[in-house]
Amino acid sequence: MNYRIQGLNADGRFVSLELNAASPHEAEQLGRDRGLEVLAVAASHHWSAALRQIGANKFPLLLFNQELLALLEAGLSIVETLETLLEKETRAENRLVLKAVVASLHEGHTLSAAFETQREAFPDLYIAAVRSSERSGNLIESLRRYVAYQIQVDQMRKRIVAASIYPLLLMLVGGLVVLFLLVYVIPKFSHIYTESQQELPWASWLLMKWGAMIEHHGGLIFGLVLAALLLMAYALTQPIVKSWLRELLWRLPVAGERMRIYQLARFYRTLGMLMSAGIPIMAALERVAGLLDQKLRMRLAEARNLVREGQPLSQALETSGLSTAVALRLLRVGERTGQMGNMMDRIADFHEEELNRWIDWASRLFEPLLMTFIGIVIGGIVVLMYIPIFELAGSIQ
């Protein structure tokens, strides 16, 4: 569940951020881990968060990083670069963010500290990568890694969304057609068959009864359906219902495993980016916890404890169920060669390619099956409406 944390940072500035945690106590502890003096913790309802997102423009972090990297590579200082980006920015919300960052730099704060004052625009992972680059003196390389990381993550997310659009559109159109037949067409036909006193097949009789019921009690049925939809929408906002649905999805034979692979691919991609930026393994493992589902987050906590006790990372992840056969072999190679960041990227590449192949296969199989199912439902309703007419025509002949 999401919680909104309000508190003071190390500089005495008021900070408000949103964190995902299992309880208010855990959310407060996460806020303290980020160096905040926590003043208040409150549950952040998804509907209110959604309304805030609708009313606000999301800060274009990827575009900002690409422009920032280009200007730094051209030889501008960090202050000159940010002032240039501020001058060219046209959106008022983004200008406020950049203006606050530039003002913080003029006050003598580091770049990571300046970004930290605008947590709504700059995520914790990004701030951690910048802070690490300040210690190593390699900001440009760190920005390159983050841009590459963000592009890879966005590509995978866009691939999943694109694969979902066509099936959702089919279900929407098919559902509207079925709704039109059930609510408008069938009641009209029920009049004809009622007046003709013709004996109907059992399935057609049920369909006509439905039409008569819609005609006489349509308002009541519409109210009941609307109330059921509102109740379902409310239930989906409850943590216990969402937890039950997630658990159900995780238990599905094929979809559950693919969800796990997707989570692990994002986990390894992010962990590799942080380790390549020079962040210690324990700190990196703590920062990627928020990317995982609650079920895998508990396993990650177990893995952190094992690493803290002295076990190699590969063995800790294997024991905790956060690795695959391929990931385990590559992790062991990375431990021997000292190139863990590079190996993490390779693991993510392998699993993302595996997911891409599965998405292609599932789309080619599911879309024709869905079209066939919708066609059978619509065709079945139409045939059941016309069967009595066919029988009447046969009897006349």
Tertiary shape: elongated
Overall structural class, as computed from helix and strand content, comes to mainly alpha
CATH superfamily of the largest domain: Type II secretion system (T2SS), domain F
CATH architecture of the largest domain: Up-down Bundle
Distance between the termini: 68 Å
CATH class of the largest domain: Mainly Alpha
From the alpha carbons, calculate the radius of gyration and give it in angstroms: 28 Å
Overall domain count: 3
Strand percent estimate:
5-15%
Low-confidence residue ranges: 46-56
DSSP summary, beta strand count: 3
Helical amount: over 70%
**Which strands sit side by side, in order, in the main sheet?**
2-1-3
How many helix segments?
16
Overall pLDDT confidence: 82
The quaternary state of the protein chains shown equals: single chain
The secondary-structure element order is: EEHEHHHHHHHHHHHHHHH
Main pleated sheet: 3 strands, antiparallel
In the CATH hierarchy, the third-tier topology of the largest domain is known as Receptor-associated Protein
Describe the protein:
- The chain has helices at 24-33, 46-55, 61-73, 78-88, 92-106, 111-116, 124-136, 139-196, 202-236, 239-251, 255-276, 281-287, 294-308, 313-319, 325-337, 340-396, and strands at residues 2-8, 14-20, 37-43.
- The chain is mostly helical.
- The protein folds into three domains: 2-55; 61-151, Type II secretion system (T2SS), domain F (Receptor-associated Protein); 152-397, Receptor-associated Protein (Up-down Bundle), CATH 1.20.81.
- It has a three-stranded antiparallel beta sheet with strand order 2-1-3, with helices on one face.
- β1 and β2 form a beta hairpin.
- α3 (61-73) runs antiparallel to α8 (139-196) and α11 runs antiparallel to α16.
- The radius of gyration is 28 Å and the shape is elongated.
- The N and C termini lie far apart (68 Å).
